[in-house]
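just leaving the lab so this will be short. below you get a single protein, a line of residues and a line of whole numbers that encode the local backbone shape. id like you to explain what the token line says about the fold, in plain words if possible. thanks a lot i owe you, the record is right below:

…
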Amino acid sequence: MPGAIWVVAEQPDGALARVSGEVATAARALGAAGGRDVVGIVVAAAPDGPAAGLAAFLPRVMAVADPAADAHPWSAVAANHVAALAERDAPSYILLGATPDGRDLAGTLSALLGWGVLANATEVAWADGGPTVRTSVFGGRLVTTSAFTTDHGIVTLGQSSVTAAPAEAAGTVERVDAAGGRGLPVVRVLDRVAEAEAAAPIEEAAVIVAGGRGVGGPEGFGLVEELAGALGGVVGATRAAVDAGWIGYARQIGQTGKMVKPGLYVALGISGAIQHKVGMQASDTIVAINRDPDAPLAEFADLYVVGDLFEVVPAVLAELRTRRG
């Protein structure tokens, strides 16, 4: 019987990560196309909650409880158990989110299992007996299609590449014991530094208001934040704004930042270079305000306002206040 497709889920703050629901949805489609079983894996100090969340997407979930997952970097702890389970059950493919933890886990599993990795997929489909992966490269200027030369491998799927869709019926969860895993040394955490920003993660946001070089400086992001607050959204930024030190990296959207897929994306002072486009082009509705009528963003925005954002945005805010009485 051909090996199964596995999804290894992440669970920040004890809840199933959004990207894991997206990866599970993609894996379910692969399994249906390839005639493969699809199995979820959760490794956590308290796996029951995220395992139940993953079971909403997949027919079977294996949950491994390991207290070390709370005290050490998660990817190293997970790799110990996932590698041991893979050697026991012989899956064909393992899918992960292309997050910092997912990339760490993919690299470690590749070393432990000797499997190849296809990283940062924007699309994944079943063809010629295995997964084929589309990836954006060279700053979004080219799209490649790749496949494994063996009957096993690891795929990391970019965030917001797929819309998460629960299965028609919830699957089952079973506790499993990986018997201590592969014995990989676990990194000790000597110190933790929490980011000052307390805003919601941009990957989870339904509304994003993003600022670029055109906001002029850190003061300009005050207006970005005000509009985001009025719309019930969060603040994003381009790499240029982050590199200039106007806002933290956690807000960066694009090829070297976060991939987002909100219902509404408002771009303020953003030209729309390809590196930024690949991170937000999947947004349902894109509204842009820019003084340059020929900026690249004008070609794919749903609404493009040519004007000074420092005049247009205050007018929009005033209108929003009027409508809310």
About this structure: The two ends are 65 Å apart (CA to CA).
